[in-house]
Design goal:
six-stranded parallel β-sheet; 328 residues
Length: 328
């Protein structure tokens, strides 16, 4: 197996780990940047090393697209690629950010699989460059097989008119379950990169209504990005943990909460929601994108996007109904 990505390193390293554990020989190709790991130098390499634990080979492209050492690194990786002769080449949609990953992986039309995480750009996200958009379009059009993580995303890919390959829907998946007892006081968690499309402002609007029913409830907001200004931030029941959260601290955040909230105004799927399931925590999410396939009545509650009243009611039901959060 030959796997390549730019972003989604954590995801792709986990995929490599799983394939290796099932007896596949795997080569993972990434860029060498640490942006997905809070910019801490060497953090990406350390994470991949721990995840793969020597079961798969990891190759890196140095620096930015125009880095002078790029051509030599591309040639080296292409040499490994041709010696390896993989049965399957599987790339993430994010390689459209850096055409060197395409060249290093020697992609041939119809001969590679492609995972598309986000068929549509999220509202508020910076648009990609013209060259990145063109490369993404070519990458999608020439794929031999496309993976997405929900039926809703498959519909979005089909409606784009770009993809002609078969589309396989594979649920996002979770790690091995490790539930723990719920905290004594109700605590909500908003976790991950903070962006406009994730609707943190809607959650802030909902919190006074939640406190009307659950006055002890605490909301923890943890992640990188610009927290939207809101009067609710003056309340001591809002706890902010700005910046990248190191991997070692993530389990503690989930185990300290009663419920994870995904108040997204638009979504594809959610790795945060999958983490919540892994740690045995119910999820209150909005009915958008693939979230309605991730969350059902067994796991949590759904509310319409950008509706703080409905969101507050769903949160209050999970926190306030005796035994419900434990059952979920």
């Amino acid at each position: 197996m030959w796997l390549a990505c730019d972003w989604f390193v954590k995801y792709t390293a986990g995929l490599a780990q799983g394939l290796a554990q099932h007896g596949c020989g795997v080569v993972l190709v990434t860029r060498d940047h640490d942006e997905e790991f809070g910019g801490k130098q060497g953090a990406m390499r350390d994470f991949v090393s721990r995840t793969l634990a020597g079961r798969a080979q990891h190759l890196e492209l140095p620096g930015r697209v125009r880095d002078r050492s790029g051509p030599r690194a591309i040639a080296t990786i292409r040499g490994v690629r041709w010696r390896w002769q993989p049965d399957v080449v599987h790339v993430q949609d994010s390689i459209s950010n850096d055409p060197r990953l395409w060249l290093a992986s020697s992609l041939t039309a119809g001969r590679y699989a492609l995972t598309i995480h986000d068929p549509l750009r999220h509202p508020g996200d910076r648009p990609p460059s013209q060259s990145a958009r063109l490369l993404q379009r070519i990458l999608r059009r020439r794929a031999g097989l496309v993976f997405v993580h929900s039926e809703r995303l498959a519909d979005e890919v089909r409606s784009s008119g770009v993809v002609s390959a078969p589309i396989e829907v594979v649920p996002h998946g979770i790690g091995e379950g490790s539930p723990s007892p719920l905290p004594r006081k109700p605590r909500l968690l908003f976790f991950g990169r903070i962006s406009h499309y994730k609707g943190l402002d809607t959650l802030f609007e909902a919190m006074p209504l939640v406190w009307d029913r659950q006055p002890e409830a605490i909301l923890t907001v943890a992640g990188e990005g610009q927290v939207p200004a809101h009067p609710v931030l003056a309340d001591r029941r809002i706890e902010l943990r700005p910046g990248h959260v190191p991997e070692a601290e993530v389990p503690g955040l989930f185990r300290e909460c009663t419920c994870v909230v995904l108040p997204y105004r638009q979504a594809s799927q959610s790795g945060v929601g999958s983490l919540a399931k892994q740690f045995g925590r119910p999820v209150v999410a909005t009915r958008t994108g693939g979230l309605s396939e991730l969350v059902d009545d067994r796991w949590g509650r759904l509310a319409p996007p950008e509706d703080p009243v409905a969101l507050a009611a769903a949160i209050a039901e999970v926190l306030g109904t005796p035994g419900l959060a434990e059952e979920m």
